[in-house]
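Thread: Newbie trying to understand structure tokens

Hi all, I'm a second-year student working on a class project, and my supervisor (Dr. K.) asked me to get a predicted structure for one chain before our next meeting. I've only ever worked with sequences, so writing a 3D structure as a token string is new to me. If someone could post the tokens and maybe explain what I'm looking at, I'd be very grateful. Here's the chain:
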Amino acid sequence: MTSKLHFGCDGKGRPFPVVLTAGQDGDSPQFVPALEAIRIPRRRGGPPRSRPHTAAGDKAYGSRANRAYLRRHGIKAVIPEKADQKAARTKKGSKGGRPPAFDAELYKRRNLIERCNNRIKQWRGIATRYDKLPDRYQGGIELVSALIWLRSLCPE
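---
Reply by user tm_fold:
Sure, no problem. This is what the structure looks like when written as tokens:
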């Protein structure tokens, strides 16, 4: 009984909503639901923003469908191209098209999501998954996420 967390974080390493899936499920199909769960609060009130400016992910999220979704919604993709996709594209020659745009400097900031994941996993109940029911486990993750947000808003 394993599970995976799919979530985003802001520029300060604070987590956005979590999509919890079974461990054997792939990463790529969860990219769009994780993005659609994001609501970025506005400082001056009003409805929250639902689209980030950029979406950085590892190679597992680099499918054609995910890149098309990002283009349709005006979100800049910072996802490296998989080696097999690159080989297939170059094999086609000029009919293979251009490589997808990739900003290496922005990709360096992807470590924020890894650090955010480590911060969530510092909680023993989350790291060891004592809760066997998915809704209780997700509730614990949301509680930890709220505490991380509150700590960042009220520095010591």
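A couple of things are worth pointing out once you decode it. The domain at 3-153 is CATH 3.30.420 (Nucleotidyltransferase; domain 5). The mean pLDDT is 86. Feel free to ask follow-ups in this thread.
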